[in-house]
Amino acid sequence: MHQASIRTADQADLVHLTTLDTHVRAAELERVVSLGRALLAEQDSEIVGWLRWSLFWDEHPFMNMLMVRADLRGNGIGTSLIEAWLDSARASQHVRVMTSTLSTESAQHFYRRLGFVDCGELQLPGEPVELLFRMELT
């Protein structure tokens, strides 16, 4: 398989995204796509990964979801999605981006390797600690 191409999701993608991204309500996913805050990775016209974000404190792009098809992880697709997201944030003159992951997930090591730094924790009842990360873009 060739390298994935990255593009901004559009309304036509919602049919596929709502079945793939079950971590968010369909109405919210539609809003995110309408705002241009979802990126897709495609190989051979098939969605193999996606990234969606919101704004933390209405100011800092916050990556809410990064997902790559399990059998394709470790092939640079997630990195390509994040790089496209960072380029978009820089083009919009943001100075910082943020994300988080559970302390039990290996994604924390991936984010640190890409240059994200720890900036806090959130403890919700009955859940593992949520680790917060930031990256300065200046």
Automatic annotation (TrEMBL):
Record-annotated N-acetyltransferase domain positions: 4-138
InterPro entries reported in the protein's UniProt record: Acyl_CoA_acyltransferase, Bact_Acetyltransf, GNAT_dom
One Pfam short name: Acetyltransf_7
Keyword Ribosomal protein attached: no
UniProt entry keywords in alphabetical sequence: Acyltransferase, Transferase
Domain of life according to the entry: Bacteria
Keyword check for Transferase: yes
Protein name: GNAT family N-acetyltransferase
